[in-house]
Structure formats: structure tokens, C-alpha cells
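Q: Here's a chain of 415 amino acids. Please give me its 3D structure as C-alpha cells.
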Amino acid sequence: MHIEDNLPAGNASPDDGTSSSLRSWLAVVAVAIGAFAFVTTEFLPVGLLPRVAKELGVSPGTAGLMVTVPGVIAAISAPGLMLVAGLMDRRRVFLLLTTLLLASNLISAFAPSFPVMLLGRALLGAALGGFWTLATAASGRLVAPRDSAKAMATILTGVTCATVIGVPLGTFIASFASWRASFMATGVLVAIALVAQFFLVPSLPSTAALRTSDLVGLLRRPHPRRSMLMVALVFGAHFSSYTYITPFLLRNADLSMSSITWLLLGFGIIGFFSNFAISSTVVRSLKMSVGAMISLLMFALLSLPLLQHSESGVAAVVLAWGVAFGALPLCFSVWIQRATPDSPEAGSALFVSIIQVAIASGSLIGGVIVDHVGMQADFLFGSGLALLGLVALASFGAREKRPDAASIPCRATPE
């Protein structure tokens, strides 16, 4: 593994063998519940797109703005909020952002028109970027140094659980009630997360405010810059297609809404187990793990339109897609942590920002393609972005190796 010449000496606390208390782990769980609530809210429209589009009188491509708008705003709020927050206690910021999320769900649930719906989704975006920046950067502060990786994995479990339970459950609720009831149910979940954070998350004072120069400094370094490009391409590949998976399965694959609900549930469940399975190899062979999952994503996006008339074929490909995307967030989180170990908050802010740019631009371009060219062209576009992601990965050259104990303080990167 190569070391960047311009990285300063590490300042991570060494593992002194101290175990984390129960209260510490409860704080991590409270943040994980918040992660679950945020991801469920962010991607809830994926399963509700046809219903919302029909009731509010817009096309499916236009309805995709429910994913695009929060992505655009979150891309700005990820670094922007951290710059504005300055030295504010991070616990207070957590509570503020979760309150905004609650407001977003209530506005969306009662939206009388599509513009009001977008207003609610904009509030989500304002909260989303800051939350993810805090969650990924603060995970190691909530527990003892030796448990920081487990804390991060626990918070990411909230993401995979939202994919497993949140989005399919929202679709299920809408199937017997309405899409508005899905947003209301998510609001209840957010309220639970807010209460948990209020009582369990300790004070997290900030000793150094994030500065614009910290963000610019990271982007001037080749390794973090190329890492962010790779992440953008792969997340763009996923969300340009996944945003419109429900209309595709409904129209092109001719599946019933009941079958789609179960298939999305299967997507989430297999992604949940994929997240745990990849954790056993991601540290030892990070580059290989990333490459395998991007390749599987590209295969799924290429194959789905070809197999659209085979119900079993479609199901198999969607599950393979779930395997890939279930593992990629953890892979990329570890990659960025190693790429920016001397500036964790700046690295986290840029990571979250670039993901949201990819979600917003991917869903927006995907919507234009869906409305003007068709579903199959959209999936072909996504597979092309995944291929570019593999090219970006190949540009890192030397095969990554597992860092040993001596190399960690030296701030090893994934190259």
C-alpha cells in the first residue's frame, strides 16, 4: 500500500485496549436508528413513484425529482452545514437535523401538489447532507478507539436495514392504505430516532471548526480526488436506474405491485447479508472487493432489460443487483476513510456531498432518458457509468494490501 507524500503524521488515538461502555453502544444505536430513518425517507419515493405521479398529476420522470431535489440540496449542505456549524456541539446538530427530517415527512405526507412535495423533499436534503457527514465522522468518537470500525459498521447497518425493511415496507403500506400513509409511518420512525438521540447521544464538542481550505486541500490531492470520482460514477450508475426500478418492473417486466414489493424486499434482504459478508474481505482486499461489486452492478444493469420477459430472470438479476449495492457503501466508506485519514470530517463531508451529487444527477438524467428514450436506454446508461467506475478503480494501479498495525498511524491509503 502506497503512502501519500503530503499526508501529515497521524493523530489517531492508539488502541489502549479499553472497551466501550453500554451507554456508548446505545449512543451508536441511536445514530443508527437515525440513519435508518434518513435512508428510508430518502428512498421511499422509489417504491411509491407511480402512485405519487398519478395522484399529483406528473410523469414518472418528473416524479423522479423527489429523489433529485434532496440530492442536490444535500450535496450543498454536507460541507456547507459543517462550515456553518463551526464549533457547535455535534449532539445539538444531530437533534436539529433529525427535527428537520420530521418536518420533511409531515410536509410530504400532506402535500396537496407536487411543488409542495418538492418543498418537503428539499427539507430532507438540507438535513441529509449534514447528518451523514456527522454520522460517519462521529462514529469513532462515540466508542473506544478499538471499536470505531464496529461503530461505523453498526451505523451502516441502519442503512442496509432501511433498504431491507424501510422502502419495501413503505411500498407495502401504500398497497393497502396510501402513499401518504407511508410518509406518515416514516414520520413516526423519525420521532423515535429523535427521542433516542436526545436521551442517548452524549455531548460531542468540536475542538476544530471545518474550514473551506480543508475541503480544497483534499481535492488538490490526486488520491482523494480520484476516489471521489470513482464513488460518483458508481453511485450515479446505481441511482440513474434504481430510481425507476418500480416503473420498469411494472411496465417492462409486467410484474404486479405485490410481486414488486416482495422483490424489493428480497433486494434489501440480500443486500443486508452482502454488507456483512463483504466485511470479512473488505479490510484484507479492499480493491478486489470494490472491483467485484462494481462488476456485479454493471452486469445487473446490462442484463435486466435483456431478461425483462422472464420473471425468474428478472428476479435473479435484481437480487444480484442487491448483492452489489448492499456491499458498496461499506466498501467505499472504508476506501474514503483510508484516503483521507488526516482530515476525517473534511473527507466525510466531501464523500457525502459527492454521493448526493451522483444521486441527484443520476436520477435527473435517468428521468430525462426514461421520459424521452425509454427504460432500456436508462439501464444501458447506468451500466456505462459502472464501466467508467471500473476504469477509475483501475487507475489506482498497485494492488491494495491490508495495513498492518505499524502502518495505520502512518495514514495508509487504499492504493
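Q: Can you summarize the key feature?
A: The mean pLDDT is 82.
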